[in-house]
Design a protein that fits this description.
Helix content is 13%, strand content 34%. It has 1455 residues and is mainly beta. The strands form 32 sheets. Strands 35, 37, 40, 41, 44, 45, 46 and 47 form an eight-stranded mixed sheet that branches. Strands 61, 63, 66, 67, 69, 70 and 74 form a seven-stranded mixed sheet that branches. Strands 49-50-52-57-56 form a five-stranded mixed sheet, with no helix packed on it. Helix 12 packs antiparallel against helix 13. The two termini are 55 Å apart.
Length: 1455
């Protein structure tokens, strides 16, 4: 019946669709768009595992989701052996269909890896393979050794439990879903398929108990030949009881009664073919008799042992399996296994073999992954020499390679031999450009392609599509040791002869990041002066210093100040100085020049050219004379020699020792006003005056002298007013004048030049005093002025006495010295005595006088500032006061820095260098008078030394610079100045200044250097305009704002080099509240706006939230720098569950129930201040509210009630009722309402059943008018009472109006369907759904009725057929393993014995028409062919193939 099942599969599918009844829809499908699943179809196979399906339809006009068909396995019982292969049956169904004009016998092609569920068949005897159908029938196995089956053309997984989609598998013991514990493994091999066309080997497992000490069973021997040569005869065989000993794998005979179970038959019928050679005709009765006699026809074939298979191992112990074959007992030829009864197959028989130990052999591992994916890579594998000790334990030992005699297999092989795509190739990184302090490493990046031969081809960069790799990287090394950075040597200090060269040194540190920083010089090793200064020699200078080329004119000026002490007739001066003279003195002013004709010289007074008059004589050769000075002669006289100019200032002294305020003739009034304002400006700016005023300013070089006469006038006036000044005793000087006239009446030129009655001092000395006074505190300025005037008077008079001594010695030959010594020395001793008693203390105020002791008022410290040139006691020692610059030379051995301070209590003195406290040692000494002495100074000692004086009332500090001759030195600080309150702040350059807005910031850049340096200011490396500058290296930044932030740099430069220091200005802005917080809005939008949020404020905010919820609190603040946020709860750090968002600006409270009601605050702090903002969170709980009544449940009658409405409130607002679930509900008492009689109304009963099931019927109900009273009673009323309110409902209606239908079947068709048995076929008929009047309708309308069958079996003579076989042909070989023979197999009619189409016989297995033969070893070893196809093998040049080389030994040997 198997053939019948699949042949009619299409018809069965249609029938299943029509007959499938609709079951009630399941609950899970009721809400979907699908109808219920239909019933399962018949199985596609009757055995061997088939498939059944179920369908459902979509009830929607749209597309339904899901599948409309489902499958399950069925008929999971093994087919009988005669059923044959299901795929082979499907191929053979096409035998009677012509393919390309001819018939073929089709054989199945199984195990197609690409499409296992297509029907591919091969024509017998040809290499033609054709896909005869895109899909095999459902239930066909995907692969021969698998349970997976094809369904609808797709391979579906089937487990060993025969369930579709199951992944359950058999264990090694053949138990489905077992754990492998019911058997043991016997190592060896046996022959599992002994058919002539397939041989294979597999490991076997034997169930526990299968081998005890022995196994006994019946073993039948081969059948004897048939007793007749034609027709039906009989065969006999011997059946023995044998035992298989498991320990020795040997067989022994036992008595027959020792074997249990049924004994195999020892006799059977045999059929040897027709006796007359022609097909006989049989009647039905004869046919039945023949079938009855052929029941034992199977006994013609039986199983027999036929030798053993090859040993499973060549050494070390293997097994051999006895070969079991199905033999034709008459011909002793091997038959197809299907001819023998499977259940009678003899047991497996094994024996041990190849017991000799194995020799050493090579063990070869798997190849490793290829080293390259392209180009040419390498694969390696492990190869070692091993020896198998025991095959049972699989124990091996590793031996030396020499013990394996065969050549060692290769360890390496090439792989992936194809061109790579172009890619970037890099070289090794080069050495770093620096051993420390950063640096860079470089490498080459090339575009190359690796070819299949392993070579590299260099290509243009455009061929590589990937981004190019980096070719340079920063080195990762350490910081360099501190080192000196030396500049180039300067030019020689002279243009000829011998001079010096200098260079600058900076102590720096190279960082590992590649940058560098300038550090304190003390951190570098000491640097000898010889490395900074060296001698240089140029060409010998010309004689008499005559220039080798023409130079500009030069006026030889004398920079001195002259003070006349008594009347003299005439005085001689040289331009360049200041003269304070008595009236009526004649003045001769000389202007010595070089490289200029003296006749070309002309003079100016107060910028107006002078000409000779009766009062002023302009003489040739550079002289001019003023006759008898008068007040109008006061002014500035200028000698002009080409581009060169020099000045001489004349002031007059009055009789009261006051200076006469004279006005030169011809000066305009506005000129007078200009000079007055100039003097006033000089007086008001005396604190900030600098040396440019006295060393020649830019204005003076253009011809307009700066006028320091206001300063000089002040000092000279104080000298003249001093009680010991010699001008106070004119009688003595007048006596001297008389003596002079007696000595000589002539004008002695040398005497006039010696100026015996004129005090002389250098202008530089007065400049030092003025500069010193400008550095003093305002409250001490007068005291210092008096002190400095006394000191100056002492110096002037001492110098004058020394000069006069030399003059007197020269004149003693003509004048009696005794007449002069007494009065002269008498005056000198008086003056010097007065000077001696005029110490600094004599001029101090009472509060500062040491003699007053503790009785003086308290005063904060003040350091005495003395600006004078450093006193050089010797070539190697320098002594100086504060305020001066000390320049170290190569021979300097000692530097002594003085510091004097006053104050009450007495100040404490301390020293600092470059802002750090001086560490005293054997070279840096603190003297008992608080002076600082530096012995053997080195370059590391260069810097600014500050003397700090402090007491309980305050402190004072003054600096002095110690430097080398070379590039400038800047006093720098490395401190941070923070100002949050003061309106002004001052800081040294180098410090970091942090201040609030709208303050005035002054940055001081104190510079020392020889030559003097010029200061330039920069902001962010951009030069600032002069409008920003103040004097003395100060930079004022007024009314600071955020735009003023930046890096301010002070650059000091001179001819020897330049140095720069910088200060960072940061503008502070204290924290301030903002009206909103952008981050809070962003957070709310990202996590949803359901979270309550609030912003803190300085005055405090408030928010009410529910318990257990989460809340966001924002701290909206701004400031510069960005404030740090600290959150507090009730003034203390947070302890409840929380998290911070937006860099701490947002606080999220995760569970507000953790916090009792309190205040949250955020403290914002930065360097400018702090700000505290706060908020309070009030917890509002949920509560039930009963405040309204719901509407009445009825409008009348006795059941109307009103229930109070229950609401959940939060802070008076209604919320979802689920929030109050945990709160106890209040008791609700319903209230009766609308308890009154209802109006009359119609009442109806249910409809009665329909009078007919189809074709139209009627159904009825009762209709009455009733009234419901307030007590709940129903009272009948008249129809009129209800008719007034509504129309009377109907009491009768039509039903089941659909037409009556039934199934109608046509007549049965002819009995000519596919044969399904002897004389048995299938016939069909049509089934219709129609009404009683014969109108056809849809089959769905008859679905509720049982459907008649549309197919049935029938008897027909066409199916009276059977298979007829001819005799076997002669075997193709007499010996060996490759002989075969064939026979003709036809489907013939039983009655006519004529061939018919083979598909009529398909219901019975087709006999084989091909088999192996003469499978016996060839006796002689002569090489000969064992197949008849050897000539074809030779023509196709297949002799080199192993499978043909031995079978065609003779023919291939001749080739």
């Amino acid at each position: 019946m198997e053939g019948c099942r699949w042949a009619a599969a299409g018809t069965l599918l249609l029938a299943s669709l029509l007959l499938s009844s609709r079951t009630a829809r399941s609950e899970e499908d009721q809400d979907s768009l699908w109808d219920a699943w239909g019933s399962w179809s018949e199985c596609s196979r009757t055995c061997g595992g088939g498939a059944s399906y179920s369908l459902r339809r979509c009830l929607s006009s749209k597309t339904c989701e899901g599948r409309n068909i489902r499958y399950r396995t069925c008929s999971n019982v093994d087919c009988p052996p005669e059923a044959g292969d299901f795929r082979a049956q499907q191929c053979s169904a096409h035998n009677d269909v012509k393919y390309q004009g001819q018939f073929y016998e089709w054989l199945p092609v199984s195990n197609d890896p690409d499409n296992p569920c297509s029907l591919k068949c091969q024509a017998r005897g040809a290499a033609l393979v054709v896909e005869l159908a895109p899909k095999v029938l459902d239930g066909t196995r995907c692969y021969t050794e698998s349970l997976d089956m094809c369904i609808s053309g797709l391979c579906q997984i089937v487990g060993c439990d025969r369930q579709l989609g199951s992944t359950v598998k058999e264990d090694n013991c053949g138990v489905c879903n077992g754990d492998g514990s019911t058997c043991r493994l016997v190592r060896g091999q046996y022959k599992s398929q002994l058919s002539a066309n397939k041989r294979g080997y597999r490991a076997i497992t034997l169930t526990d108990g299968a081998f005890g000490d022995f196994i006994d069973r019946f073993i039948p021997e081969a059948w004897s030949s048939c007793s007749v040569t034609c027709g039906v005869g009989s065969q006999v065989r011997l059946v023995k009881c044998q035992v298989l000993l498991s320990f020795s794998q040997s067989v022994a005979d036992l008595p027959i009664d020792e074997c249990e179970g049924p004994k195999p038959v020892s006799q059977r019928a045999c059929y040897s073919g027709p006796c007359n050679g022609e097909a006989a005709e049989y009647t039905p009765e004869e046919t039945d008799q023949l079938y009855g006699r052929l029941q034992e026809f199977d006994e013609l074939y039986d199983w027999e042992y036929e030798g053993f298979t090859e040993c499973s191992e060549s050494c070390g112990g293997g097994v051999q399996e006895a070969v079991v074959t199905c033999l034709n007992k008459q011909t002793r030829e091997t038959a197809d296994e299907t001819q023998c009864v499977i259940s009678r197959r003899p047991p497996q028989l094994l024996k041990a073999c190849s017991l000799d130990p194995c020799p050493p052999r090579w063990e070869i591992g798997k190849w490793n992954t290829c080293s390259l994916t392209c180009g040419v890579g390498l694969q390696t594998r492990d190869v070692f020499c091993s020896h198998l000790l025991s095959r049972e334990s699989n124990e091996t030992v590793i031996l030396a390679d020499e013990l394996c005699h065969k050549p060692k297999p290769s360890l390496v092989q090439a792989c992936n031999r194809f061109d790579c795509p172009p890619s970037w190739y890099t070289t090794e990184w080069q050495e770093c450009s620096q051993t420390c302090g950063g640096g860079v490493q470089k490498r080459d990046i090339l575009c190359k392609q690796r070819l299949a031969d392993g070579s590299l081809l260099e290509l243009p960069e455009t061929f590589c599509s990937m981004p190019k790799l980096v070719s340079q990287q920063t080195c990762k090394n350490e910081d360099c040791p501190n080192e000196w950075l030396l500049s180039d040597w300067s030019q020689c200090s002279v243009s000829c002869g011998e001079g010096t060269q200098s260079r600058n040194a900076i102590c720096r540190k190279m960082l590992k990041t590649g940058g560098s920083i300038i550090i304190n010089s003390s951190l570098c090793p000491p640097l000898p002066f010889s490395s900074l200064i060296r001698p240089c020699a140029l060409a010998t200078c010309a004689r008499h210093n005559r220039p080798a080329h023409k130079q500009s004119p030069h006026i030889v000026a004398v920079k001195k100040v002259y003070i006349q002490t008594r009347k003299q007739k005439k005085l001689h001066f040289i331009v360049g100085g200041y003269a304070y003279l008595l009236p009526k003195t004649s003045v001769i002013l000389r202007c010595p020049t070089r490289r200029f004709r003296k006749s070309m010289i002309f003079w100016e007074k107060d910028n107006k050219r002078l000409i000779s008059t009766a009062h002023i004589t302009i003489a040739p050769y550079g002289y001019m004379k003023i006759h008898r000075l008068k007040p109008s002669d006061t002014g500035i006289y200028t000698c002009i020699a080409g581009p060169a100019r020099e000045h001489f200032v004349i002031k007059l002294i009055g009789s009261n020792k006051n200076l006469i305020a004279g006005q030169p003739a011809g000066i305009r009034e506005e000129e007078t006003m200009r000079k007055a304002s100039l003097n006033e400006a000089l007086r008001t700016q005396e604190k900030h005056i600098n040396g440019i005023l006295f060393n020649g300013s830019k204005t003076e070089k253009r011809g307009h002298p700066a006028d320091p006469s206001g300063w000089y006038d002040n000092i000279v006036s104080r000298l003249l007013q001093h009680k010991s000044w010699p001008g106070g005793n004119l009688e003595f000087w007048e006596a001297q004048e008389s003596t002079e006239r007696n000595v000589s009446s002539e004008e002695d030129q040398s005497q006039e030049y010696s100026l015996p009655y004129t005090m002389v001092t250098e202008q530089k000395r007065l400049d030092d005093i003025i500069r010193n006074l400008s550095q003093q505190p305002e409250e001490l300025k007068d005291i210092y002025t008096e002190q400095l005037v006394v000191q100056l008077a002492h110096e002037i008079f001492k110098s004058h006495l020394e000069h006069q001594e030399s003059v007197l010695k020269a004149s003693r030959r003509r004048v009696d010295s005794a007449s002069m010594e007494y009065p002269f020395h008498r005056h000198v001793s008086g003056f010097t005595s007065s000077l001696r008693t005029s110490s600094a203390e004599a001029f101090l105020p009472t509060s500062m006088n040491p003699t007053n002791g503790l009785h003086s008022p308290h005063q904060k410290p003040a350091i005495l500032r003395k600006i004078s040139a450093a006193q050089q006691l010797s070539a190697s020692e320098v002594v100086t006061h504060l305020g001066q610059t000390v320049v170290l030379a190569s021979g300097t051995l000692s530097v002594l820095l003085h510091c004097e301070a006053v104050g009450n209590p007495k100040p404490t003195i301390s020293w600092a260098k470059n802002g750090e406290e001086v560490k005293y040692n054997d070279r840096m000494l603190l003297q008992p008078d608080d002076s600082l002495q530096i012995l053997a100074p080195v370059e590391a000692d260069v810097g600014f030394y500050a003397c700090n004086a402090s007491n309980a009332l305050g402190s004072d500090s003054v600096s002095i610079a110690v430097t080398l001759a070379g590039k400038p030195l800047i006093k720098a600080s490395r401190t941070t100045v923070i100002n949050t309150e003061l309106p002004a702040v001052t800081a040294d350059i180098g410090s970091t200044v942090k201040t609030i807005q709208r303050t005035n910031v002054t940055i001081s850049c104190q510079v020392a250097g020889v030559p003097e340096a010029e200061v330039t200011w920069f902001k962010n490396k951009v030069k600032l305009s002069p409008a920003h500058h103040l004097r003395d290296g100060l930079l004022l930044i007024a009314n600071v704002s955020l735009s003023d932030q930046g890096l301010y740099s002070c650059r000091a430069a001179n001819l020897r080099g330049e140095v720069t220091e910088s200060s960072q200005l940061l503008v502070l802005e204290p924290p301030r509240p903002l009206p909103y917080l952008e981050n809070l809005t962003a957070v709310l939008s990202s996590i949803g706006t359901s979270l309550p949020s609030v912003l803190t404020s300085p005055s405090g905010t408030k928010m009410t939230i529910s318990p257990g919820s989460s809340a966001l609190i924002g701290c909206a603040v701004d400031g510069h720098p960005t404030p740090n946020i600290t959150w507090l709860y009730s003034g203390k750090p947070l302890t409840l569950k929380h998290r911070f968002l937006a860099a701490g600006h947002i606080l999220q409270i995760l569970n507000i129930s953790d916090a009792p009601e309190g205040e949250f605050s955020c403290l914002a702090q930065n360097e400018a201040g702090s700000l505290l903002q706060k908020t309070s969170l009030a917890i509002q709980d949920y509560q039930w509210s009963v405040d309204k009544l719901m509407s009445c449940s009825a409008s009348c009658g006795h059941k109307g009630i009103q229930v109070p409405q229950l609401r959940c409130l939060l802070d008076g607002t209604e919320v979802n009722i689920s929030n109050c679930k945990k709160k106890p509900k209040p008791t609700l008492q319903p209230i009766a309402c609308n308890r009154r009689d209802c109006p009359s109304r119609w009442m109806v009963t249910s409809w009665s059943p329909c009078t007919r099931s189809c074709g139209g019927g009627i159904q009825m109900r009762r209709v009455t008018c009733q009234q419901l009273t307030a007590k709940g009673n129903s009272v009948p009323m008249s129809n009129e009472a209800c008719a007034q309110a509504s129309k009377r409902p109907v009491d009768t209606q039509n039903c089941n109006r659909q037409p009556c239908v039934e199934w109608v079947a046509s007549s049965w068709g002819q009995c000519n369907g596919p044969c399904i048995g002897p004389r048995l076929a299938v016939q069909h008929r049509q089934i219709f759904c129609q009404t009683k009047d014969g109108t056809s309708v849809s089959s769905d309308q008859c679905s509720a009725l049982p459907r008649p069958l549309s197919t049935q079996n029938c008897w027909t003579d066409i199916c009276g057929v059977h298979w007829r076989v001819s005799l076997w042909t002669v075997c193709t070989a007499t010996c060996g393993n490759y002989g075969f023979q064939s026979r003709r197999v036809d489907c013939v009619h039983i009655r006519t014995n004529k061939p018919v189409l083979e598909h009529y016989c398909s219901w019975r297995p087709r006999p084989v028409n091909w088999q192996r033969c003469n499978i016996t070893p060839c006796e002689n070893m002569e090489c000969r062919d064992t197949t008849r196809y050897c000539e074809k093998v030779k023509q196709l040049k297949l002799c080199q193939l192993t499978q043909f080389k031995s079978r065609c030994c003779g023919t291939c040997g001749k080739a």
